[in-house]
Design a protein that fits this description.
By secondary structure, the chain is an alpha+beta fold. Strands 1, 2, 3, 4, 5, 6, 7, 8 and 9 form a nine-stranded mixed β-sheet that branches. It contains four helices and nine strands; from the N terminus they run ββββααββαββαβ. The two termini are about 35 Å apart. The N terminus is likely disordered. It is globular, with a radius of gyration of 20 Å.
Length: about 210
């Protein structure tokens, strides 16, 4: 079963993971930011679909705000024209993953490697004792998270910087993961990257 929890704008299909100590995002970034141009003022631009859901759009913008201002931008003053507009989007997809989806489950020792991707909860569980109380049909909730950022020159509408990031894990991460994914998306600003996708690691404690 698959359920999309939030869909606000476009995002890429990449790979990544998150843990309690750090958040790993796979990021693709592309830049046409003019050489010598310093970041200045910004304002958010909402797509029509986002305008139809203002509370969700506000939540998403609040999640991205720290990352945008950390890249050097500042909110435009009231009654003034911003230097750039920023579109942000996110999608969180819930999937039910059964441990029996793992082809290695039926190995010699009955090993189970992927209740969470990359063994983030420690070593694999072994032996028939783990199987008692668990059986086919038991599903683990799992979440694929995606965010996207698009920065445009306000006067011309020219896209100047685009970045997308993806992580996955066992929580939706609306409050404690998405802000750091936006931070990862803007780590390459203003140059962008020639290697896409690439891994960006964020330490939430910093």
């Amino acid at each position: 079963m698959m359920k999309i929890l939030a869909l606000l704008g476009a995002a890429a299909t990449l790979a990544g993971c998150a843990s309690l100590n750090h958040i790993d995002s796979d990021v693709s970034s592309f830049s046409r930011w003019p050489s010598g141009r310093a970041p200045s003022t910004y304002t958010f631009e909402r797509l029509p679909s986002q305008q139809a859901h203002p509370q969700q759009a506000q939540m998403l913008e609040d999640s991205a705000r720290r990352a945008i201002e950390g890249a050097g931008f500042s909110p435009v003053g009231e009654g003034k024209a911003a230097d750039v507009t920023v579109q942000v989007g996110a999608r969180i997809t819930e999937t039910d993953r059964s441990p029996f989806d793992d082809p290695f489950w039926y190995g010699r020792y009955g090993s189970f490697h992927r209740p969470f991707v990359h063994g983030r909860i420690g070593q694999p569980f072994w032996g028939p004792s783990w199987r008692r109380g668990w059986g086919p049909g038991f599903d683990f909730p799992y979440y694929e998270r995606e965010v996207a950022v698009l920065i445009r020159d306000r006067a011309s509408g020219q896209p100047l910087y685009e970045a997308r990031a993806q992580t996955e894990g066992n929580t939706a991460g609306l409050a404690n993961v998405l802000p750091h994914m936006f931070e990862a998306s803007l780590k390459d600003f203003p140059l962008g990257s020639t290697t896409n996708p690439h891994r960006v690691v964020i330490d939430p404690a910093k």
